[in-house]
Design brief:
The chain is mostly beta strands. It has two domains: 77 residues; 35 residues, no CATH class. Helix content is 6%, strand content 31%. The strands form three sheets. Strands 4-10-9-6-7 form a five-stranded mixed β-sheet, with no helix packed on it. A three-stranded antiparallel β-sheet has the order 3-5-8, with no helix packed on it. A hairpin with a 5-residue loop joins strand 1 and strand 2.
């Protein structure tokens, strides 16, 4: 701020006001692979920008805190919602980010089979399984 005076002693005040805006993106625990539907169980890797932070997670849909399972190595899941949070290394630990969440759905197939395929239209078990496989499975059966 500055002031200037005219010949009559009147003051004129000049002030500079600086304004700015900044977008701050909060760090979150990330999941790999991304949430989604898969044909097989998935090996889940959790990561966080601050490698000194400790990640905790749950697979029962509850919100995690620093008393839940500590992430140390990738883990395999089937139909679960994984929630994770990172805590800094202070004492006591402080949550370093918001809770992240990812839902994984693993495909299941319901197959009806009576044992011999003669139940009025049911396709034999192996044919049903083969129809659902991608890419399709082909096999050779050697008989007696």
């Amino acid at each position: 701020m500055s002031a200037s005076f005219n010949n009559n002693g009147a003051a004129t005040w000049n002030s500079a006001v600086a304004t700015w805006s900044d977008t701050v993106e909060a760090d979150v625990v990330t999941f790999s692979p991304a949430a989604g539907a898969y044909d097989d169980d998935q090996l889940i890797t959790l990561s966080y920008a601050d490698e000194t932070a400790t990640i905790y997670y749950t697979t029962d849909g509850s919100d995690p805190d620093n008393t839940d399972t500590e992430y140390t190595t990738p883990f395999t899941i089937d139909d679960f919602t994984v929630k994770a949070i990172a805590y800094d290394d202070s004492s006591p630990p402080v949550a370093d980010c918001e809770i992240s969440s990812a839902t994984y759905t693993i495909a299941t197939y319901n197959i009806t089979y009576d044992g011999n395929g003669s139940d009025g239209g049911s396709v034999p078990l192996m044919q049903q399984i083969m129809k659902r496989m991608t890419p399709p499975l082909f096999w050779v059966i050697r008989g007696h």
